[in-house]
Design brief:
Helix content: 10-25%
Structural class: alpha+beta
Shape: globular
Strand content: 35-45%
Order of helices and strands: HHHEEEEEEHEEEEEEEEHHHEE
Number of domains: 2
Number of strands: 16
Number of helices: 7
Length: about 350
């Protein structure tokens, strides 16, 4: 083999000017930059807004969007958003209003089956923000909420059946993979200055009939729950108000869809004498109900009313008087549904 010095191999090569290389390489980069900026600012966002409203209407939803504009490279900001989900059977329609909602998609997630988004929403006088990942059979969320006024969330009435007010703060971390039994997460929430009832709306309570509650002060409600292997365990659910004291323990066996999850709870409520004295309506209702078997079954030795609540989250719950039972979390039910 003949050894040829490196100098002889390169002596006839032209001298490279890095300035020229960078100049020519910069042309396509500058073109792509201009193209992206042009597409970003000239995208027909009004047409996108109209298309979203039209698509929601075709699916049976009501959607209003006052304005839609770009947010960074992969997101949009929607202002004045109102989403109305139709009523189902005896359940009223859900009406949700966002003052402003910003959603950004993860560009890398577009290459996978799991789509990831971040969101920042201003609603009900407060804020909610976090990250969401959605796949064909899996769901993840990591979110924080602060200063949310419950009385401004009209959709809440679909679940509570009675007016509830207070300010919500907390954190939610939850992951539901394809196997529901592998779900895990945690929930920490505080509802400051919670009150229940408005003196007008009737609440159907077994043994009591249609009960109209005057507004009752329940104080601060603190909720702590963990999700382990598809079961949400309620570790703390306590409120110590001047009119009403609440306590609950139990578990929720998760299922898909989430509305099929099975509740298995023990709930205790104590109505204070000061509230009975202030609300003649409540005092009369308690005196009337106290002669019934349902009330007697729920009456605990400390004067509180205690119920065991079972059933599907989307179906009719079955509260049963449990005043003679020890106040403890009911045993977990069968394994989560897939």
């Amino acid at each position: 083999m003949v050894d040829i010095p490196w100098e002889r191999l390169t002596e006839k090569l032209p001298e490279v000017s890095w300035r020229k290389v960078l100049r020519w390489a910069g042309y396509p980069v500058f073109f792509m930059f201009c193209f992206v900026v042009f597409a970003y600012w000239t995208f027909p966002y009004e047409r996108l807004r109209d298309r979203l409203v039209e698509e929601a209407g075709e699916r049976g939803y009501g959607l209003e969007i006052i304005d839609l504009s770009p947010s960074r490279l992969s997101g949009v900001t929607l202002e004045g958003v109102r989403l109305v989900l139709p009523a189902k059977g005896d359940e009223p329609a859900v009406d949700v209003v966002f003052d402003e909602l910003t959603v950004r998609a993860s560009i890398l997630s577009a290459l996978s089956d799991n789509k990831s988004f971040s969101f920042d929403a201003e609603l009900a006088g407060g804020n909610a923000q976090g990250d969401v990942a959605i796949g064909e059979k899996n769901f993840e969320i990591d979110a924080e909420v602060s200063d949310i006024e419950l009385k401004q969330i009209l959709a809440l009435r679909r679940f509570t059946k009675i007016p509830v007010t207070g300010k919500v703060d907390g954190e939610i971390t939850f992951a539901m993979p394809s196997e529901v039994s592998e779900s895990n997460g945690s929930v920490t929430l505080t509802i400051e200055a919670m009150s229940i009832g408005d003196g007008k709306t009737k609440l159907d309570i077994p043994g009591w009939g249609g009960l109209t509650l005057d507004q009752a002060d329940a104080g601060d409600l603190n909720v702590q729950a963990t999700v382990v292997e598809g079961t949400a365990n309620i570790e703390s659910f306590k409120a110590d108000g001047k009119d009403l004291k609440l306590d609950a323990l139990g578990n929720v066996k998760l299922a898909r869809p989430i509305s099929r999850s099975q509740l298995n709870l023990m709930l205790k409520a104590k109505i204070e004498e000061s509230y009975k004295a202030r609300s003649q309506k409540m005092a009369a209702m308690i005196e009337l109900a106290s002669t019934g078997d349902a009330y007697k079954a729920a009456l605990a030795p400390d004067g509180s009313l205690q119920y065991k609540i079972t059933g599907s989250a989307s179906g009719r719950l079955r509260p049963q008087g449990a005043g003679k039972q020890a106040f403890q979390a009911p045993a977990a039910t069968a394994r989560s549904q897939r």
